[in-house]
Design brief:
Belongs to the MoaE family. Pathway: Cofactor biosynthesis; molybdopterin biosynthesis. This is Molybdopterin synthase catalytic subunit. GO terms for molecular function: molybdopterin synthase activity. The protein has 158 residues and is of the alpha+beta class. The chain has a single domain, classed as Alpha-Beta Complex (Aldehyde Oxidoreductase, domain 3), CATH 3.90.1170.40. 37% of the residues lie in helices and 35% in strands. It has five helices and nine strands; from the N terminus they run βαβββαβββαββαα. The strands form two sheets. Strands 3, 4, 6, 8 and 9 form a five-stranded antiparallel β-sheet that branches. A four-stranded mixed β-sheet has the order 1-5-7-2. α2 runs antiparallel to α3 and α3 packs across α4.
């Protein structure tokens, strides 16, 4: 299951959705809003999300992870709207019989979420400016890790 929320993410509530008596391990990832990016001082982030498509594609990504890594359960949630420094922007959790599968599946899910979901991020800087940003490096690192090919034009951009 994958959700989009305007409300703060509660890690313990999210974790409770993954309890499974057949699981021997649990791994989670929390993406926090930090106070800097690429030399800029950041005061806050703002996320816009195409909710229905994000939920649908997020569910596909989680199903892929279940099939690829043999995990028991997986759940993800992404915030939308205005977030302050320290807020959780994205939370991914995985329960599995074995830790290796849980770690790998969690990494796979967050990597896929970062490049496949219709999520737009605006950084609000300390100097009063705001800018929509894109992480091209995220796509390149993910492609390398998971053996995907990127178009030559995309590779040349970086």
């Amino acid at each position: 299951m994958f959700e989009v929320s305007s409300d703060p993410i509660d890690p313990m509530l999210s974790r409770s959705k993954l309890v499974n008596d057949a699981a021997g391990g649990f791994v989670s990832f929390e993406g926090w809003v930090r106070n800097h990016n690429e030399g800029q001082s950041v005061d806050a982030l703002e996320y816009e999300i195409y909710d229905s498509l994000a939920k649908k594609e997020g569910a596909v990504i989680i199903q892929e992870a279940i099939e690829k890594y043999g995990i028991k359960e997986a759940y993800g949630i992404h915030r939308k709207g205005f977030l302050n420094i320290g807020d959780i922007a994205v939370w991914i959790g995985v329960s599995s019989a074995h830790r290796d599968a849980a770690f790998e599946a969690c990494r796979y899910i967050i990597d896929e979420v970062k490049i496949r979901l219709p999520v737009w991020k605006k950084e609000h800087y300390s100097d009063g400016q705001a800018e929509w940003v894109n992480c091209q490096a995220c796509s390149h690192a993910h492609a390398k890790r998971h053996g995907h090919d990127l178009p030559a034009a995309t590779l040349a951009d970086h």
